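Supplementary Methods S3. Input chains for the assembly prediction are listed below.
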Amino acid sequence: MRCEVVAVGSELLLGQINDTNSSWIGSELAAVGIDSHYQTKVGDNLDRMVSVIRLALERSDAVICTGGLGPTQDDITRDAIAEVMGVPLLLDETLVDKIESMWGLRGRQMPEINRLQARIPEGADAIPVQPGTAPGIVAAFEYEGEPKVVYAVPGVPWEMQEMMTGFILPDLVARSGSSDVIASRTLRTWGQSESGLAELLADEIDRLDAAEPSEGSVTLAFLASGIEGLKVRITAKAPDAAAVAALLDDEEQRVRSIIGPIVFGLDDQNMESVVLELCAEQGLTIGTAESLTGGLIAERLTNTPGSSRAFRGSVISYATDIKTSVLGAPEGPSVSEEMVEAMALGACKTLDADVSVATTGVAGPDGWEGVPPGTVWIATCVDGVVESQLLRFRTDRMRTRQYTAITVLDALRRRLIDRAT
Amino acid sequence: MRCEVVAVGSELLLGQINDTNSSWIGSELAAVGIDSHYQTKVGDNLDRMVSVIRLALERSDAVICTGGLGPTQDDITRDAIAEVMGVPLLLDETLVDKIESMWGLRGRQMPEINRLQARIPEGADAIPVQPGTAPGIVAAFEYEGEPKVVYAVPGVPWEMQEMMTGFILPDLVARSGSSDVIASRTLRTWGQSESGLAELLADEIDRLDAAEPSEGSVTLAFLASGIEGLKVRITAKAPDAAAVAALLDDEEQRVRSIIGPIVFGLDDQNMESVVLELCAEQGLTIGTAESLTGGLIAERLTNTPGSSRAFRGSVISYATDIKTSVLGAPEGPSVSEEMVEAMALGACKTLDADVSVATTGVAGPDGWEGVPPGTVWIATCVDGVVESQLLRFRTDRMRTRQYTAITVLDALRRRLIDRAT
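Predicted structure tokens for the full assembly:
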């Protein structure tokens, strides 16, 4: 089964908006074993859209178009699909009612122009999952003697994603002739390189490759996510949902037993949400004292809904004397073990917090007071006990700060887990 | 002149990396008046790459390939271009020496495998601009009886960008038969909607459309940049660089005279770099007191190289009692005019800063102590004088915090400009 992605919109070609939809779709297709060999961006031009969809149908079994489903005259994805199918667009009055009632639920009246969104190519259907007011389209038809399917989804990412997971992915898997259920689970990791992870998991990947496919199959994939660490994605395929869940559980345990504590979370969790959950579970409050990271850790913590349950606040002691005047640290070199430990203790005291993290260092690009750029001290304070660590980065200012933030949160995470066990 | 973009790499199709290069290239092409009707992602597969490049040459005059120029066996962009041209790859010994000496400058020896990067299709050339160790390729040849040009650049964004601006864009403009020089300047704005800006500038755009092209031409474009405001891009074309600079200066003055103080910066400036520059110019230090924004403002300020010249630090008073204990604010409702003003004064005092910004509010998704989500108070303190403002947002948690950060920095920017005049 091959499926291409066509991202529609002149604003994508002009670089006014970055097309992130096709990457997301590509990763979801890969997870269910569907190949995507070409992904194309095309503008709001009927002839060019028609030629791109035709070409995609010649090369592949399925096409997912994103964008161009709005109500204005620029939005012509519906027209392009109808032209490829060689059929007219028909107004679906039931769909008009549905769109009108969705506007009503939001306390607004549907503008007349939005009736145009209820036009569907003859022989095609609206996608039953419709999170927003724009309906999607699924068109299964014969093209040059072969059965093909074209989907159209809105360009708005969350609407596109709900249609993908709720309808298109299972529909594609069913059309591929498989009645299997496919699901995946992502383990978030921090502290290993991609090659290091691959080495640790090499035997496990060999074992999976050699496994009997009749029992259901499991695959592992590594996804780099830049400053957020590496993801290990487990994908399982089996005849029913219970069997898939069992495979995922089993494989998660196997992977955890191999790579151990570098797994900090699952799926949508991130480092700060995990730390906040651990604090909340243990009834602890948290504060930060940041010099190098300049508020980045506080910002990440407070960007998590519900953070006020555990997060007390921060002192961003960028100027050296603030480390003393507000955090009560003794005077001395500001990038040092003594200073970072005093900052962590000071954060707990000044902010009346149970646990804390602290950072000081030189982000670069230049050195400072004889300390080379990339030199970083981090500390954590738990139950009044401070632990610190020296880090050395050889990267740019932004990454040095980001890596420091996630590294010190990970150090606190590990201490909180140890504390509970 | 039409130019397509081909982004090469299986990791792009699998969504492991987002292709941002083709958007960036699209926006640069648009700025110099070159159309880009199709942009394609294709994996590391020779047959598919060759078919994509051929198709692009049938539809357009030029093709820019990004990625696939590394030294490993996956990197086959060179091979694909040679196959399209119908020529062999030849090892360029001069280029080997150049690559070797670049490795040497970094204190490392070139691995033997990197010699492969010096293979160039017969009749093509290495791009003279080479910021990294990977050479780019420019291949001008006749394809099906028409003159065409194919460029290949590395997928690493900064290497790609230097080759684009230093060589490919001027080369394309020259090939388009124009001897004109094209340049653009971007005005960064905050505080107007896209339709509001379009309305304000409608007459000016009409005037430009009606202008005589013989005098050189100027165009205006609006680029939405999400939480960072709107950009107004002025692009000028004229016979020489001096005439282009004069056109840009003149148009910048015209636009500024119409939209006035909502222009906060130019080109690569952002709101925090502008505020830090104003502080440094006036010999002022700055601190922040953040509740709602939770360190976001401090983080933005400290992400700017050289921020330590003016930035003192911050108190993130997320828990209500910290507003009192650390910032010295009187007890009272934490989302109120009195509180935000006391926070701004407290920031100057606690952090020994000359000017400050303060934020408090409810980011959502839920309300808090009877205050609806999206309710935000901001304040600025300059020379001991505090000014505050109530904002109401109807958006998500992330945007409420981001909009608040840039709005309060903009308020401070305006006061600093007033102060100096």
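The mean pLDDT of chain B is 92. Chain B is about 40% helix and 25% strand.
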